Amino acid sequence: MQKLILSLMILLLSPLTVFADGADISVHKDTVISESFYIYYKVDSTDINPTYLQNKENIAHIRNYLKNSPRIDSITIYAWASPEGGYRRNAWLSKERAKTAKRFLLETVADSSRLNSGKINISPLAENWAGLEQIVSERYTRHDREKVLRIIRDRSIGDETRKWRLQQLDNGYTWTLLKRRYMPELRAATWICVWAEVIDPLPKVKQQSVQAIPVEDKGVIPAQPIAMTLEPFRPAPLFAVRTNLLVPALNIGAEVPIDDRWSVSADYYYPWIWPSKTNRNCFELLGWSAEGRYWFGKDRTAADRLQGHSAGVYAAAGYYDFEKNFRGMQGEFFSTGLDYTYSMPIGRTRRANLEFTIAVGYIRSWGRTYNVPGEYGDLYPDEGTVIWDYFGPTKAAVSLVVPIFRKEDRR
After folding, report:
1. Among 177, 349, 335, which Cα is nearest to 267's?
2. What pLDDT is attached to residue 398?
3. Pairing outcome for strands 71-81 and 189-198
4. Of the candidates 59, 224, 244, 336, which lies 20 to 30 Å from 102 by C-alpha distance?
5. What are the sequence ranges of the domains in the chain?
6. Residue 305 binned pLDDT confidence (cut-offs 50, 70, 90)
7. Averaged pLDDT for residues 225-252
8. Reported pTM
9. CATH for 2-129+172-198?
10. Order of strands across the sheet that contains 189-198
11. What's the burial of 29, exposed, middle or buried (CB within 10 Å: 0-12/13-18/19+)?
């Protein structure tokens, strides 16, 4: 009983024993210490994969620790699933993961006098909302951070309502980001807390610093920041391609983000249409434009690139041939001005954006009028060049934008 009380005091009132890499672990006989170990599971899996994330190093450390502990007082296994998915499935996953971890420990220590089933308690805790709350509080930096925390901390709603509200944020992008960047640490982890009596000396081992894990009201142990080999998911587009739906299939453009707030783009228009065989009417235009944009918004991240509100400066040039009823004009033009753009994601997957643009500026044109004597006739230009200048609205676009992302981590 005295040893059990001492063990609980160590767990709740102080950090767990921390060992620097390569340091000797030396404690006196009859000293009770506690350690925490981590086993990660792949999504929707209950099997232990030795090659997944840090499992190889952690399994080696667990085996070394248990092998060199002459007597094991008790082991408690906490297991979770991430909040994604249905609750019943997540509760089953956490229970089966705890059972798998228990079988692994019993197989690791085959000596039943040192470790048997009665010394291992399992505590499957279903969905790790407390762990998600801690991760968001410490590591989530997007503009809707406070909204996310308010939803997670709202005890007046059920978990399914909590999921639904998170899924509505930012057209579903926030939930997608939480799943890909942070939830692998929750759904893929079984936390094993070990209490053991050891003697001096225990062989050298390498172990990460682990702090004591406080138990909250609902019996959920929040996730701690863990050194992982999992690279964070950063859905930052390398570039994007687009087309103006107001001139369908007759233009194409590309935009490249310089950083979270700046981008450059180029567009090519080629609505070379209505060329009447009789030379009665035609509408032919070729144009090129280039632009630099600044994207507004507080606390923008790489994930926000090419989305939101922006202002830009553009320059364009091209040539044209407009004819109606055998009378027309051919010429060249140059334009420059300012534009405003709002880009919003389409759907929850955010694999495409819808972009609205309007511009005002200046156009100068050099045109030459002509006439065609009759059907199938030749073009006869008039003498002289007409030069005209224009100030006002110069561009309108509703564009479909498809971002091209760098390779993602989908583990």
Report:
1. 335
2. 95
3. antiparallel
4. 224
5. 2-129+172-198, 237-405
6. confident
7. 69
8. 0.46
9. 3.30.1330.60
10. 31-40, 189-198, 71-81, 120-127
11. exposed
